[in-house]
Design brief:
mainly alpha; about 0% strand; about 70% helix; single chain; 4 helices; rod-shaped
């Protein structure tokens, strides 16, 4: 037996003729060892690929959640800002009430009498 390693494994593996490869492995210990090592590597790649795909799915989900949260925050901020800018908004009236600034009924557009009370028409 010579000291050279058998080089047929690579050739048979590349040709993708599995039956020839398996037949050769039965008679050649060098190629059998190479085949065993390749199976170990293949199993490790399968194991890691599942974990990698799962990790990538989690990252994609986190990215989607971040985009959705940022969108809702921007929409809320825009809505709240527009409410503060709009002088007829409920937010402005609430802020005026909380700070002690109050509107008169006349400023609110309600019919009032000479004393500032709301006029009620009882004839209807």
């Amino acid at each position: 037996m010579s000291n050279e390693k058998c080089k047929k494994y690579e050739e048979l593996f590349i040709k993708e003729d599995e039956t020839e490869l398996l037949e050769h492995i039965k008679t050649c210990p060098d190629c059998a060892k190479e085949y065993e090592n390749m199976q170990k590597v293949s199993n490790l790649v399968k194991e890691v690929s599942f974990s990698y795909r799962l990790n990538m799915k989690k990252k994609r989900l986190q990215k989607k959640i971040t985009v959705i949260a940022a969108t809702f925050f921007a929409a809320f901020l825009t809505f709240f800002t527009l409410q503060l800018v709009n002088p007829d908004s409920y937010v402005n009236e609430t802020m005026a009430y909380l700070t002690g600034d109050s509107y008169t009924y006349e400023q609110m557009g309600l019919p009032v009498d000479d004393y500032g009370f709301i006029m009620v028409d009882l004839d209807q």
